[in-house]
Amino acid sequence: MNDHHEKRLFILDTNVLMHDPTALFRFKEHDVFLPMVVLEELDHAKKGTSEVARNVRQASRFIDQLIHDKDHGEIARGLPLDHTAGVRPAPTGRLFFQARPLSAPLPPSLPGTTPDNTILATALALQEEQPDTRVTLVSKDINLRIKAAILGIHAEDYYNDQVLEDADLLYSGLSELPPDFWDTHGKDMDAWKAEGRTFYRIRGPLVGQWHPNQCLVLPGEGGFQAIVREIRGPEEAIIEYTEDYTQQRHAVWGVTALNREQNFALNLLLDPEIDFVTLVGVAGSGKTLLALAAGLTLVLEDKRHREIVMTRVTIPVGEDIGFLPGTEEEKMEPWMGALLDNLEVLTQAEEGGEWGRAATQDLLRSKVKIRSLNFMRGRTFLNRYIILDEAQNLTPKQMKTLITRAGPGTKMVCIGNIAQIDTPYLTETTSGLTYVVDHFKDWPHAGHITLMRGERSRLADFASENL
Prior knowledge:
32% of the residues lie in helices and 19% in strands. The strands form 3 sheets. It has a 6-stranded mixed β-sheet. A 6-stranded mixed β-sheet has the order 7-10-11-12-9-8, with helices on one face. A 6-stranded parallel β-sheet has the order 15-14-16-17-13-18, sandwiched between helices. The chain is α/β, with parallel strands linked by helices. It has helices spanning 14-19, 36-44, 51-67, 72-77, 115-129, 142-150, 181-185, 260-269, 287-301, 328-332, 337-348, 353-367, 396-403, 432-440, 458-466, and strands spanning 8-12, 31-34, 79-80, 94-97, 134-138, 154-156, 174-176, 190-194, 197-203, 215-217, 225-231, 236-241, 276-281, 307-312, 368-372, 384-389, 411-416, 446-451. Helix 8 packs parallel to helix 9 (287-301), helix 9 crosses helix 11 (337-348) and helix 11 (337-348) crosses helix 12 (353-367). The protein has 15 helices and 18 strands. It folds into 3 domains: 8-156, Rossmann fold, CATH 3.40.50.1010; 171-241, no CATH class; 258-466, P-loop containing nucleotide triphosphate hydrolases (Rossmann fold, 3-Layer(aba) Sandwich), CATH 3.40.50.300.
């Protein structure tokens, strides 16, 4: 790394602004350069209602505010990035546009004027013109970064919106206690029972690392399992002994927990004090099944919510589902295979033969509504139990749009597998699911658990390890 105070110029690729329109303001004291071809590509991408088109229009509005009332000379000298779009600390760099043809000869193996090659040629020309400036091309496109590196242009990915540096640092919701836990945290301990629940007041150094509703586990025989209920101070917390859902007599809508993570998940899902639950885990770890079983119990037995609303990002993300025939329900059916498989598992246990099963399924269908995400905007959901499936494919902004739809009496469960992102611009560290897990971990009415291995057949287990 050269001297930190050297002058830097960042050339932004179109996909950076498509991904985050405030990127213009994220380069602190450094200058930002927009090639003409980027403005051209923004123009092509502005139509429609997709997230990308919205971001592009927002980026264009920012540029318009910066250019407003400026004459040609001022634009050529660089526009101060002072309309900060709420970015703190305010940037002190300038924004430059490509005002004249800039091109350095590209090697003959990169012929033609594709937008990528034009950007590369521009970057090379700027490097030659400003030898004392470090020119960096910023792009989300890995192939463009590879080409840039081959031509000797410094290129970087755009990272500003990362919630965490690394997905492995994501809060797991579960803490394994050391074997000497009771010796170090058990003195002056109070324990009491209320309404059939057992509470402990614990004091000790570990409390400082806990979050509300975190699951605690003492490994070993008859392992002690508890949930942090209240953090009273840096050294004092109240924890509650968890309900044991691994036994058949405590089954939730016919489902029992198969491991400690599933047990904690059911404790969080059925807790009336928790309004927001995130379940993260690999395929087959039981996320959807647990969320549905708990939902049916809360809706049909406890009558705590009016119905279950099940939604997921339809695969043509953000696109209209209009090309499929039928009502919203029917249109969502193809995407909801996983839900229907799970409902089948849940209705199997009922007695009463064919007819009984058909009746149960009709009842369930009347209480489980399938909705497309695109229809959730602008609605407020009262007294619903909302399951948001495939939540890893949402951006933080879409996630916020959805969660703010929840009205009183609504509980929201977000399910996803961070390792399975289908949206081109999201990564494990920028996913909306990672974002909410991180932002909700200190709120007393939210709970999170990372479910471990899939509870599948030995065939599936062998395949996932050996194929």
